[in-house]
Amino acid sequence: MKIYFATGNQNKVDEAEIILKEANCEIEQIEIPYAEVQGRLEEVSAFGVLEVFEKFNRPVIVEDSGFFIEKLNDFPGTYSRFVQETIGNEGILKLLENETNRNAYFKTVIGYYDGDNIKLFTGIVKGTISTEIKDGGFGFAYDSIFIPEGKTKTFAEMTTEEKSEISHRKRAFYELKNYLENL
Ligand code: ITT
Ligand code: NA
Hints:
Number of strands: 7
CATH topology: Maf protein
Binding site for substrate: 7-12, 65, 140-143, 163, 168-169
Oligomer: single chain
Protein name: dITP/XTP pyrophosphatase
CATH architecture: Alpha-Beta Complex
Shape: globular
EC number: 3.6.1.66
Order of helices and strands: EHEHEEHHEEEHH
Keywords: Hydrolase, Magnesium, Metal-binding, Nucleotide metabolism, Nucleotide-binding
Pfam family, one: Ham1p_like
Largest sheet: 7 strands, mixed
Helix content: 25-40%
Bound molecules: inosine 5'-triphosphate, sodium ion
Number of helices: 6
Number of domains: 1
CATH class: Alpha Beta
Radius of gyration: 16 Å
Distance between the termini: 12 Å
């Protein structure tokens, strides 16, 4: 089975390929832009996938993810890209300086549309924010400050395979895979 994935983010495509490798699913990246409505991840993905389908006319997915910090009332959330590109991980660590509540989570919402039904698939991974940037050369964006629950390394210190065993993205893509297998 082939899944068309509308995204401009190569990291996401690499992860999706690893996640779906054993599922007999092939991922093909397409670069069809869509408006990112201001709203929750669910809304961004649902509107986005409708817009891409209009232009592409084949079953397609979009995926919207975010990083949510408990102490900061879920900031940066849907502003994750902008915040990463502006204050970055150093800015986040500053905001949490001397803070003991370092809980955070990643969330992914995949939107799938085949012209019939819109489906949303969600994945979350909880964890904590490290006190310093720990980058093992893997991952991207917030990965170097996020330690998933039950682990001691940040996502950026794990290989993409290790990250993809437990990530938010893995969980959402598995929901999608299960749905597609049972169609
Ligand atoms: P597309 O919309 O083109 O798919 P994007 O980079 O804008 O790509 P998102 O809106 O889904 O992606 O994600 C917002 C930001 O959240 C993203 O730019 C990263 O900074 C961050 N992010 C998403 N997934 C991540 C992950 O697995 N690890 C670390 N940071 C992540
Ligand atoms: Na986006």
